[in-house]
What does this fold into?
Amino acid sequence: MTILSPLPGTFYSRPSPDEPAFKKAGDTVEIDDTIGLIEVMKTFIEVKSEVAGTFKAYVVENSSPVDPGAILAELE
Amino acid sequence: MSIKKIFIANRGEIAVRIIKAAKGLNIETVQAYSDGDKEMMAVKLADHSVNVGPAKAADSYLNINKMVNAAIISGADAVHPGYGFLAESADFVRAVEDAGLIFIGPSAEVIDRMGDKVAARSAALAANVPVVPGSKGLITNNDEAIEVANEIGYPVMIKATAGGGGRGIRVADNQEELIKYTSQARAEAEAAFGDGGLYIEKAIKNPRHIEVQILADGTDAIHCFERECSVQRRRQKVWEEAGADCLDEATRDKLCAGAVELAKAVGYKGAGTLEYLYDEKSNSFYFIEMNTRIQVEHTISEMITGIDLVQEMIKIAGGAKLSYKQADIRRDGHAIEVRINAENPFMQFLPFPGKVVSLQIPTGEGIRFDHFIYEGYQISPFYDSLIGKLIVHAPDRAAAIDKMSEALQGLEIGGLKTTIPLHKALAKDAAIKAGDIHTQWLEPWLDAGNLKEEKAS
It folds into this structure.
């Protein structure tokens, strides 16, 4: 299972530079859990999981540009 | 020393605006662009263009070293910063000047001084420009709080010096509330910040936002009248007008004359804006801050005065004295600007960085559209959502609102969600037509569901 980017922009796996990532391998992911942020046009939009599962890994590095539909993270 | 080649350290619609101004003065242009901006209109219009790095602004448009190096390599003799990005960075001004180039704007010292709230407040007071009245320093006990509040009048705001983000701020309508809130605010500030220091400021409920456009050459200064920008969402201006019809002539004169005095007193150079809160009930205005750059809404001041503000700031930077005297500046009619953002107003203004598939722009007397889009252009997700500004000019305010309504009907941007439907609704709104607005007006208006999606017919 994967979580896709709903928007183009810059993906962040952390709520702020000094904080740990929203999820790490082995974490439980519920539907609507925030797994990252997309910065689009100076606005931060939360990326919410549409599926439930166990977090495997981020596919995209923190602070990198993404296109809509890009795979952001994988679940098990 | 006149300028021959300008490096444009910005993007979007203001870059296009600067190129047009430069062309009118027969000055060559070099457009800076990031990896995400290769296809932008300003790159196509400028004489030359230079890549300044990755799409992310922090690595390109906001990187002083990269921008200054690109300007040097391009052979430009001046840098126009536009608005946003590095426009109000004193460090950028110093770096540009150290490289032997002209910065089109005020000196680093003036930017530093007017960018500091306390220093700007002192400068305003010294020029006899009213600021929001408040305690001279910290309030140490209740008696002192009561004395200050009686002097400045209720309602008053109680603020924690160590506060921020709205924490520790309370509004008291009378003495009883003042005593209660002062103790609460002190306890809260001590707990949250370990500092119980408080000060008191007059609370201006539902103020209007009024600002004065000035032009100055370092010695002399003039004003180009005022603008009202009270229609705001999340402190972002949405709909702007020149002039402010809520002001009487005497208040307008006082407001504008004070702005000129302040600009002269600080040795201001270039185009600048002094922002004020205006309390309609007491007919009082209070200086809040100065923006030391050209502003998004400069266009409406140009429409009512006939002055090209961007050309004027370039001429002044090149060493010219002001080409106008105050008596030459006439106010003619009324102008309105609306900001067209690539956002979906029906989905909490969610950004919509799509591709422009079709574009129809209204034309006619008194209609202007400043923008940087064209059919086939992909709006970048990396920058601000402003894609254009629709501007109208008419003999009076009512005619300007009608003209705005008409112009909006002729503006069609296919492929994107934009704020056009919001502006169409505003142009029809009774409160807007009556001028019965303030800075806290738009958000409750939106929350109350006044903006409805039109059914496709």
Notes: DSSP finds no helices and eight strands in chain A. Chain A has a mean pLDDT of 94. The CA atoms of residues 13 and 52 of chain A lie 18 Å apart.
